[in-house]
Amino acid sequence: MAGELKDNRGRGEAEWRWPSVHPEGRKFGLIALVAALAVLFGLDWEYLGWPMLALTVFVFAFFRDPERVVPQGEHLIVSPADGLVSLITQVPPPPELQGDDGSGRGLGTEPVTRISIFMSVFDVHINRAPVSGTLQRVVYIPGKFLNADLDKASEENERQHMLIERADGVPIGFTQIAGLVARRIIPFVKPGDLLAAGQRIGLIRFGSRVDVYLPAGTDSRVLLGQKVVAGETVLAETGKQGLIEGVSL
């Protein structure tokens, strides 16, 4: 993934810019805009036209695609999603990510730390690769559309599992989960693609969740209730363990 190198010694440039709108969302924004203008100026229904125009702004904002500065480090696992850390728990990986299906070794059957990130309709919904490596597996599973904040959403909702194998052979699994409002998971990548950490890999429309399965012997570096940023927040460092505490103020 090409990009400008920045570091903690001041190299690189920083400037504020309006985030772009992802192409996947432009068609929805334009449809909403045409409908709003038709109602507002064509039918002269101001009481309906102005709310529709506000909805158009929301649609464009929902599909915003800001640039991110991705921390570089072969042992770092960055957040694949913007949102709230809603669950941190020890669970066995999903069956679809456990064994070797011919595409590469899986995560095994022993419990590992799972970090669940809930994305509200106000969060950026572009998902990013948590590590650099080869995308070995993509498994789509149709399902329900329960509230993505619920623990059982990991097993019952529409979801898509992905498995990335790093250059050192360590597999990292994560799952995109559709939510109560989300109705479609859209991938940007396919098995065999070589990914960079923080690279855009897909989106989930209108509220959802992403689960990340950390390798054995690795603890979370984020806390329950913490807000994380896709491609920037470091979720964990492989092989690092230890209790981290925080205080809600």
Automatic annotation (TrEMBL):
Major enzyme class: lyase
Residue ranges crossing the lipid bilayer per the database entry: 25-41
Listed EC numbers: 4.1.1.65
GO biological process entries: phosphatidylethanolamine biosynthetic process
Stored NCBIfam families: PRK05305.1-2, PRK05305.1-3, PRK05305.2-5
Protein's cellular compartments: Cell membrane
Natural source organism: Alteraurantiacibacter buctensis
Cofactor(s) needed for function: pyruvate
A GO term for molecular function: phosphatidylserine decarboxylase activity
Cofactor comment: Binds 1 pyruvoyl group covalently per subunit.
Pfam family, one: PS_Dcarbxylase
Cleavage (non-hydrolytic) (site feature) positions: 207-208
Maturation and modification: Is synthesized initially as an inactive proenzyme. Formation of the active enzyme involves a self-maturation process in which the active site pyruvoyl group is generated from an internal serine residue via an autocatalytic post-translational modification. Two non-identical subunits are generated from the proenzyme in this reaction, and the pyruvate is formed at the N-terminus of the alpha chain, which is derived from the carboxyl end of the proenzyme.
Function: Catalyzes the formation of phosphatidylethanolamine (PtdEtn) from phosphatidylserine (PtdSer).
Name assigned to this protein: Phosphatidylserine decarboxylase proenzyme
Record keyword Thylakoid present: no
HAMAP family on file: PS_decarb_PSD_A
Modified residues (Pyruvic acid (Ser)): 208
Membrane topology: Peripheral membrane protein
Keywords: Cell membrane, Decarboxylase, Lipid biosynthesis, Lipid metabolism, Lyase, Membrane, Phospholipid biosynthesis, Phospholipid metabolism, Pyruvate, Transmembrane, Transmembrane helix, Zymogen
Family annotation (PANTHER family): ARCHAETIDYLSERINE DECARBOXYLASE PROENZYME-RELATED
Catalytic residues (positions): 208 (schiff-base intermediate with substrate)
Family (UniProt): Belongs to the phosphatidylserine decarboxylase family. PSD-A subfamily.
